[in-house]
Amino acid sequence: MVRNEGERLRRVIVSLPRIEYFRVGDPEAHNIEQVADRAKAIEQHRRLCGLMRQRGARVINLGELAGHPNSVFARDSSLVTPEGYIKLRMGLKTRRGEEHWVAAALDALGVPCAGEIRPPGTVEGGDVILAGEVAFVGQSERTNASGVKQVSRLLESMGYEVRVIILAPPYLHIGGAMSLIGPKAVLCCRGIFPRSFFSGFETLSISSGRLASCNVICLGNNEVIVEKKNTVVAKALREVGYKVHTLDLSEFVKGRGGPTCLILPVDRG
């Protein structure tokens, strides 16, 4: 289970692209900027999975969901908490159905269901970051006010203090503007969050115009995965003592996804 995304990554769900991610008839409807190169995307994803395995994580591949090119972005359809998973409801209409698919996979793994987001609420996983006693939640184009209210109620019942921020474009999710890089350490984009939002946490603030500039995977033990072109963040993290693994994930940036978008953490600690 997951209480804090700054802890060591132990088990994770991914969706290796093979067909669906490259079969995009209407990129705008799927919020995909450019159709990816198939061979490059598959190789990039395999390297990501290989690195996570090398660092001790068990990687579970669900494959893809037919008719859903965005199913490669495994993060968004469920949220695994200390008490089980919350079945989310996708804000992008073309992604509806992915939540049932991932829920079935989590059921098969023996992860209990701790709740569900119901209409008219929408919540995508990229808008919730669990940080021990605090849960950071973004209200965005994909996560609406009803969804925020529902997920906040569920998380508060688990003992979380929920901190909510309203995000404006170009940020798709809160996960593009911040990531946990340790149990009490946050990487964040400067000028987005009020100072009090991260009370009780150490912060590393970055000034950058890239959409997913603060989207990094925390492996635990001061190790992180950063997209190769995100050089400002990689340099800043190295300067404060992190071991930074850079990977070329350019074919997923085309789908408006960063590193964390590609993984659904199931166990950390």
Indicate the multimeric state: single chain
**Which CATH C-level class is it?**
Alpha Beta
Amino-to-carboxy terminus distance: 8 Å
Helix content: 10-25%
Supply the CATH superfamily name: L-arginine/glycine Amidinotransferase, Chain A
CATH topology: L-arginine/glycine Amidinotransferase, Chain A
* Helix segment tally: 5
Walk across the major sheet and give the strand order. Answer: 2-1-15
Q: What is the average per-residue confidence, as pLDDT, rounded to a whole number?
A: 96
Question: From N to C, what is the helix and strand string?
Answer: EHEEEHEEEHEEEEEEHEHE
Strand content: 25-35%
Q: Supply Rg.
A: 17 Å
The helix/strand class is alpha/beta
Q: List low-pLDDT spans.
A: none
Shape type: globular
Strand segment tally: 15
Instruction: Please give the domain count.
Output: 1
Q: In the CATH classification, which architecture applies?
A: 5-stranded Propeller
Q: Largest sheet, described in full?
A: 3 strands, mixed
Account of the protein in words:
- The protein has 269 residues and is α/β, with parallel strands linked by helices.
- The chain has one domain: L-arginine/glycine Amidinotransferase, Chain A (5-stranded Propeller), CATH 3.75.10.10.
- It is built from 5 helices and 15 strands.
- The protein has helices at 38-54, 98-108, 145-157, 231-239, 250-253, and strands at residues 9-14, 58-61, 78-81, 84-87, 113-116, 128-131, 134-139, 161-166, 178-182, 185-189, 202-206, 217-220, 223-227, 243-247, 264-268.
- The strands form 5 sheets. It has a 3-stranded mixed sheet, covered by helices on one side. Strands 3-4-5 form a 3-stranded mixed sheet, with helices on both faces. A 3-stranded mixed sheet has the order 6-7-8, with helices on one face.
- Strand 6 and strand 7 form a beta hairpin.
- The protein is globular, with a radius of gyration of 17 Å.
- The termini are close together.
